[in-house]
Amino acid sequence: xxxxxxxxxxxxxxxxxxxxxxxxxxxxxxxxxxxxxxxxxxxxxxxxxxxxxxxxxxxxxxxxxxxxxxxxxxxxxxxxxxxxxxxxxxxxxxxxxxxxxxxxxxxxxxxxxxxxxxxxxxxxxxxxxxxxxxxxxxxxxxxxxxxxxxxxxxxxxxxxxxxxxxxxxxxxxxxxxxxxxxxxxxxxxxxxxxxxxxxxxxxxxxxxxxxxxxxxxxxxxxxxxxxxxxxxxxxxxxxxxxxxxxxxxxxxxxxxxxxxxxxxxxxxxxxxxxxxxxxxxxxxxxxxxxxxxxxxxxxxxxxxxxxxxxxxxxxxxxxxxxxxxxxxxxxxxxx
Amino acid sequence: xxxxxxxxxxxxxxxxxxxxxxxxxxxxxxxxxxxxxxxxxxxxxxxxxxxxxxxxxxxxxxxxxxxxxxxxxxxxxxxxxxxxxxxxxxxxxxxxxxxxxxxxxxxxxxxxxxxxxxxxxxxxxxxxxxxxxxxxxxxxxxxxxxxxxxxxxxxxxxxxxxxxxxxxxxxxxxxxxxxxxxxxxxxxxxxxxxxxxxxxxxxxxxxxxxxxxxxxxxxxxxxxxxxxxxxxxxxxxxxxxxxxxxxxxxxxxxxxxxxxxxxxxxxxxxxxxxxxxxxxxxxxxxxxxxxxxxxxxxxxxxxxxxxxxxxxxxxxxxx
Amino acid sequence: xxxxxxxxxxxxxxxxxxxxxxxxxxxxxxxxxxxxxxxxxxxxxxxxxxxxxxxxxxxxxxxxxxxxxxxxxxxxxxxxxxxxxxxxxxxxxxxxxxxxxxxxxxxxxxxxxxxxxxxxxxxxxxxxxxxxxxxxxxxxxxxxxxxxxxxxxxxxxxxxxxxxxxxxxxxxxxxxxxxxxxxxxxxxxxxxxxxxxxxxxxxxxxxxxxxxxxxxxxxxxxxxxxxxxxxxxxxxxxxxxxxxxxxxxxxxxxxxxxxxxxxxxxxxxxxxxxxxxxxxxxxxxxxxxxxxxxxxxxxxxxxxxxxxxxxxxxxxxxxxxxxxxxxxxxxxxxxxxxxxxxxxxxxxxxxxxxxxxxxxxxxxxxxxxxxxxxxxxxxxxxxxxxxxxxxxxxxxxxxxxxxxxxxxxxxxxxxxxxxxxxxxxxxxxxxxxxxxxxxxxxxxxxxxxxxxxxxxxxxxxxxxxxxxxxxxxxxxxxxxxxxxxxxxxxxxxxxxxxxxxx
Lengths: 335, 319, 502
Hints:
heterotrimer; A: alpha/beta; six-stranded parallel beta sheet; six-stranded mixed beta sheet; about 45% helix; C: alpha/beta
């Protein structure tokens, strides 16, 4: 008994020292941040909006972050909390969403990874009084207030029609997608709908790359090997054009490449002739418009319709230079 | 053994309390906003997401106390979730039968591990490393990289045994922790585990059935990992082969932070669960600190080292 | 008188309370083969470690060729030309012969190994020592004898003026011993000074010119081989003022009419012991005496079912027994107090109550732990065996060696064993505890237990034994009845040639 007391005293001494050190360290490091968040008139405190992408490792979402933060700065009373799963993991995204509910944020804007998987959680947020909007990838069967993004089906149809035009209605085509997200599924439906109308076009395979860009490169290489007469690839996502060398295996003289998403370095691939057509989304708008929608909802202004169509950009060799100029302006914030 | 229990577990509780107090202070909101950290739903969230680690940490603690180590929990969790998911969602089996098969799969993994360690004599690190690969591989082969949407197949508002889903996971963790703590302290078998971990040779010389003790420990650890996988599939709603990647390190760290020594003979089940909660609180609170999003891994690592160093100082003072 | 190659002047060394060497002084002449003999614990190994630089003496000095030297580390000894061949085979089994010889002292040029030079040197040494191996053979594949010779080669690889060998022939056959001796004789002729530590007197007499005897850490005489006989050496090894033999007032020892309690018949476990046969009657204390390598511990462990024997049987009260595990042996009434209480006996992560109660509960296969009953039992045991500790909640590390040993003894005696096996029961134990443990053993015998006590402590053996059984190299050399046993007769059996008459 005597010894355990002695032990406890020596131990608790170290414990207290450690706790003090931790407090001091944390206060020093993070104290600054806290001040920044609470500066301004205490009466009009800032609204905290959580913006959740599908994953942090896809570069396309970083533009959403830029757009969101810029909109927050413009609005003045909004603080954006950007948090997402490191890889496209539905469970992790659900955990993050739940965490924001318990943190009682003022609004949530999310690009949903898995169809109806998050419906229950989104509904719980709405029931708790936290408005939810979706962007890029919708959760239409949930209670979310609005969705900002492209009309995926229409975009898919455009891709299909352009492919038919380039191939003169004849030839083998391979499709690339990732099973799970609703937006990708809709785009795929749009493509297949159009291609089905032309009997000369044969879809040899629909590849599922599970949101893995590296796997995408492998599939393009092995697919090109397997189907030497392939006339076109259509990818409903931007994985093949996120890097410069995923398309090395493709011979542009023989095979056309149509893809979604125009973020750099994709336009360069058009200039290099590797890609013939890109569908661009409003990347900065994902963040900016969602934040503005939430701010409006908090101020009592509901959006006129639950689906806010952002429209798409169709980029080819003809207008790629102009597109890149516009993009640079957007990046600098001078649009 | 009892006296150490009092000191070590108490200090873990103190660390947990300090941690909660710290974040309660640090994350306190200004104005009339409600506290983002210190509220009921958030506490439940921490418990819910910690319980997967916690249930497996019970088994890990027993293995570590016996002088071994187990690298397979993550893989067995995934395997269990996948077997349950596959049979229930695609195979159309009843939930009970799917759970039973998942348990059978996990027990098989545990038997393989114990055979490798006890009969073949492999070091536990190697044996469980191998079983980890086999279990994970089996999960991938079974799913062909699909995943099973268990929550979609369950009726909405379904409650296991009448317990709300969100309470089920922490309830299971606490119930199992209490059960195994009692087994370890009040039963001869539990004491034999401490003896084997403390001095295996002396245990043999004292007539303890060392092989049987070790076998039981690895099988139980696998069973607990399986239960964690079943809970994961049912509560979080998915059966996937790549779930719980890397969980084994967090689980072992939880047991060690809770008082288990990797050289065997020390530690407790309750301590491991408390260690899990310490990390659970960190995982929940750190992302709420602005600018700290990518620091959480670093901070978790630092916390482990700090707590273990303090533990060493404690042990050295007793000698 | 030429300058001696090695001189020890009043060398003293203690380890805590244990005095290993108490003022040893003698000379080793240049070019001679000098033997160092003594019982276990006499201080031979300690002296050798001081010579090789592994230990520093507390006081006194070591002189080489007349000059006092201070060896701070083994490297310094090597630099002075001292080579040691150790008792424990220190070869690297996975490395080649060449690598073994040069381990730690590789020949290099600018950081790169000079493989060719090392291999050539190795070949020269191998030929000199007539070892039929190649420099590239992997050490683990060689026989013990050749590995031993590789050790000798390693000692000789550098300018070696003094070669010390510590019990080099423990694992060698007669033919291999002859080979080694031829090699050593060669070396002696070539002006290397040999120091040969051994307790095998025939070898000592075959090889050495002079013999120094150590006893209890002191110098008990240096003899010219030509002018002395083994008897004299033995007497010097053991000669001390013996306290009068304590004889029990009550009749002690086995009653002649009793049936044997424990019968061991031709028990064999290679390579530790072979063909051991022994009977012990209830109330009898049989002491198993033997020096290093005699196989006593392995025998006791096999009797307690920790290992399975290759051949032979054991019987209790006439009925043959086959135990699968120590728990079965314990249930049948056996108890083993192991040799190394720290490695084999105590649980340092559990308090005394658990340490005292665990084997009993394991043997009973009890299900539940009953803390209050166990605390009471533990307290009773502490009181009964007079273990000096505040209570059963203390941990073994706070006890002295003697009290730790009492814990290990007490836990087994609490099960009232009918056959008590003990391995070095008073090793590292202070005088007071030693006496108490002896009393405990005698009491067990009086109450009818059959006791088999292995010990290398000759006075202890003589004090306790109703019968002394001497083991040497895994075989029983002979038995001496308690009354007729004395130090010389026992030592003679223990150091004699295998098969020689007592």
